[in-house]
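Lab notebook, page 48
Experiment: co-folding of the full assembly
Goal: obtain a model of how the components sit together before planning crosslinking
Operator: M.T.
Materials (sequences as entered):
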Amino acid sequence: MTTQQLYEQIQQKQSFLCIGLDTDMNRIPEHLLQTEDPIFEFNKAIIDATHDLAVSYKPNTAFYEAHGLKGWHSLEKTINYLNQKHPEVFTIADAKRGDIGNTSAMYAKAFLQDMSFDSVTVAPYMGKDSVSPFLAVKNKFTILLALTSNEGAFDFQTQQVGNEELYKKVIKTSQTWESSENLMYVVGATKAEFFKEIREITPHSFLLVPGVGAQGGSLQDVCKYGMNDKVGLLVNSSRGIIYASQGEDFAPAARAAAQKLQQQMAKLLHV
Amino acid sequence: MTTQQLYEQIQQKQSFLCIGLDTDMNRIPEHLLQTEDPIFEFNKAIIDATHDLAVSYKPNTAFYEAHGLKGWHSLEKTINYLNQKHPEVFTIADAKRGDIGNTSAMYAKAFLQDMSFDSVTVAPYMGKDSVSPFLAVKNKFTILLALTSNEGAFDFQTQQVGNEELYKKVIKTSQTWESSENLMYVVGATKAEFFKEIREITPHSFLLVPGVGAQGGSLQDVCKYGMNDKVGLLVNSSRGIIYASQGEDFAPAARAAAQKLQQQMAKLLHV
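Observation: model returned without errors.
Model output:
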């Protein structure tokens, strides 16, 4: 997928919503627990109920790995379902990987080639050669952690390195790497005032924005400071949508929650 | 396992060798490719041939994930084999994970509880709440990336944050976190001169040291600057041992390569 195709999808759906498939066995409605693969059945129902409202889906690998082989199988089934039934959506493996070069190449193979995700999140701490193998995969995107939405973001990411914060240094440095046009960045919504300066450093990149909803970030503020002329934002919501109800009506309830966000987004696309 | 037990094992085996099970399907001897699970058969043979010479084994999860479900199964079989046949060895899931709190808790469950690794490597970029769920698991260790052995380490890790390098800030800050006694650190052998200052910050922690051998680090220098009164070092070798031969003699060849390192280590334990 190209960013132009992503932009067209955003225009068509009037949405820049990413739904986080952080599917937790303890929060899956009871009636699904009898099925052979409750995690996949849950994801499938959520996807079926929301795919016209969301442009992107983002399974976080931790929730799948927590169930070992069975969970890994659910992840594979989920991405296969997305790729086959809804090839227009932008898929993100929220894996936060990163290792020395030959090892990162293995992760790139796993997520971008074998499972055919459109993108994967990557941690920047190990520097250029830990990210390059992901960037080298054509027509795929590497979403680098810049400024995350959690409290721990202030431990290191916002520390001054020379005359700028570490997360800015990460963005600036990564823009000099080969195939940097394949980069996107994670920037948490809980720090909306930071978007203005980030857009000065990287006006054109798509930003993946967690932290709206459960974590307290404001959609309006994110758009005010973060939106560019090709939108340039994917705003993620996980728990607020997928656990809108834990009863048998979980899928229509998820749709209603997604629709609420989509309608706000549609307005913000026309400000 | 406690660090005291690890120290006793080091004394008994006269070794502080960690063997990296970075098992690459393309480098497995041909005669194993006919077996049902070549990766596990390879690991099993390496472990059987070296377990009296090494105190620790470290599968890097990337090499297993690269084969999807099948690879994940090989990883589970490998850790089960280690836990059952060689419960005295210190096992490391080299996973370099790290995410927001509730998500890191899922990774901690996967690696430290379900698979029962003794430890897991974690990336520090997302700060305290991304590491705490790992630290909270009793009698297990969190091995935080501090200064890695790759070229990209100089992109961010060695940048000045205030009046010290980022990797020092990571070590110092993490020492203030709850259950910090469960912390170890990754420090690359390729930067042996850095060990002196690291030991001033963290005199007692075990350091996991990659980069001896293939990546050019000197075992003597690492010991000179990094060893403490409880040894405090786990020196990793992966490719130099497990691919010492790619023929049918790969296991005895691995043993010979491991023995060479172990004999050097035995001498260094008595300097």
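Interpretation: Residues 3-268 of chain B form a domain with the TIM Barrel fold (CATH 3.20.20.70).
Next step: discuss with group before ordering constructs.
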